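FW: tagging you since you asked about this chain on Friday. Here's the raw sequence from the shared folder, copied in full. Didn't touch anything.
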Amino acid sequence: MPRPKTMSDEDVLDAALEIMRKQGPDALTFAALSAGCGLSASTLVQRFDSKARLIQAALLQAWDRLDRLTLALAENTPKTPEGAVALLVGLSGDYGGIESYADDLMILREDLRDPALRARGARWRDVLSEAIEARFADAPHAPAGIGLMMAAQWQGALLWWSFDPRMPVQDYVRESLDRFIAAFTESTG
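HL: got it, structure written out here
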């Protein structure tokens, strides 16, 4: 089978992300990516310069997708506490099981190591927190900072689910966030 002469950066970066997800970031080399996408390793080096830049580009593309998903969910969920739950459940995705979720945690390590990726994560945290806050605008006695508190509860729910993944992640997240909302409404009602 002949090698393709061209392939979009988006497709190449998807292939790079797939390698990182299946085998870990350390397995991503220009040779491995060449085998995965069909472009020569020298072509890939010309496009991305170094492994660090390749990883960064792949993860920035993943952040772009997460930004688009967050925006779409924010536009299509009601501005109610229940809408906040729906938004976060929608972001929980379907990891396809604990192995896939665990593999994605290896990739998170790369986000934490790179200052540009950390900054991207911080911007997303702010956008997500604001989107959650907007769903509590009409809720009586919603505490200041509810957006970030609920986002933290969501991230904690994902982590706790990973230790005992007996139910689908989205169901676990929904139950956890429903309890979170009930606790704050009971304490203020």
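FW: Residues 51-76 form the longest helix (26 residues).
HL: agreed, and The CA atoms of residues 111 and 117 lie 5 Å apart.
FW: great, closing this out.
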